[in-house]
Amino acid sequence: MSAHVVSVNVGKVVDVPWGKLRRSGIDKRPVAGPVQVHRLGLEGDEIADTKHHGGPDQAVYAYAAEDLERWSELAGRTFVAGQFGENLTTRGLDVQDARLGERWAVGSTLLEVCDVRIPCAVFQGFVDEPRWVRRFAEHGVVGAYLRVVQEGVVQAGDPVRVVERRDHDLTVGAAFRALTTDRARLPSFQAEPRVSAKIARQIDEVRNHSSGAPRSDRPVG
Q1: How many Å apart are CA 138 and CA 123, to the nearest integer?
Q2: How far is CA 73 from CA 11, 82, 92, 139, in A?
Q3: Measured CA distances, 13 to 21, 46, 129, 208, 219 (Å)
Q4: Alpha-carbon distance 203 to 189, whole Å?
Q5: Residue 206 contacts residue 183 (beta carbons within 8 Å)
């Protein structure tokens, strides 16, 4: 079967024992039937930490079922759809190799790859694995954040079609490395105008630091 959505997942904000806020919507569960996708996310999905999560540049988070299965092998336990906090669990699509700025047609929506996930303490607490943030970062398969270009409806079984592939090698995997361990490569991402405001700001910071100019005040999206 071609690339498709295995599961559409949403979660409610609940009290949790991890992180500074002690509230999180990371526990995403599969939804039966169609789900409306708005500019800021999926109907019924909630975000607690709106300072660091959500917004138009992180409206939808996608993670591949194949990568969940690989993590299941590495951890010796079974990770199920939604357990990484993803809204869309996909199959048949190399999310890690998706290029920033490319667009996916999913159901009646049009989604745009624009950012990557940076693991945090809440994710580690929810997964309940030792040294999870470090392990997840070192593995480097982090999933993609998607901007909603066209609102619509998605559901399990929908095909995922890459309808616009960008003419560069600025992939999700490369973006994660540039944001973490290979920051000297960040300026190359200015070639893609569709990156998130967060990535654009960090590009400015690296460029300004290199040139000795004052740091940019570009807001985070």
Answers
A1: 15
A2: 26, 17, 19, 13
A3: 11, 6, 21, 38, 26
A4: 7
A5: yes
d(CA 122, CA 149): 29
Q: Is the pLDDT of residue 221 over 60?
A: no
Question: For residue 34, what is the enclosing H or E element?
Answer: none
Residue 106: what residue type? V
Closest CA to 198 of 174, 169, 167, 175: 175
**Residue for token pair 């470090």:** 134
Note the pTM of the prediction, 2 decimals.
0.92
CB contact burial 101-124 (16+ within 10 A = b; e otherwise): bbbbbbbebbbbbbbbbebbebbb
Distance CA 38, CA 43 (A): 7
- Closest by alpha carbon to 154, among 24, 62, 65? 62
Mean pLDDT score of the chain, rounded to an integer? 93
| Secondary structure of residue 102 in the 3-state scheme | coil
pLDDT, one tens digit per residue, over 81-134 is 999 999 999 999 999 999 999 999 999 999 999 999 999 999 999 999 999 999
Copy the structure tokens of residue 165: 């592939």
Under DSSP, is residue 207 helix (H, G, I), strand (E, B) or coil? Answer: helix
User: H or E element: which one contains 28?
Assistant: none
Q: 116 has which bridge partners?
A: 144
With beta carbons less than 8 A apart as the criterion, state whether 16 and 126 touch. Answer: yes
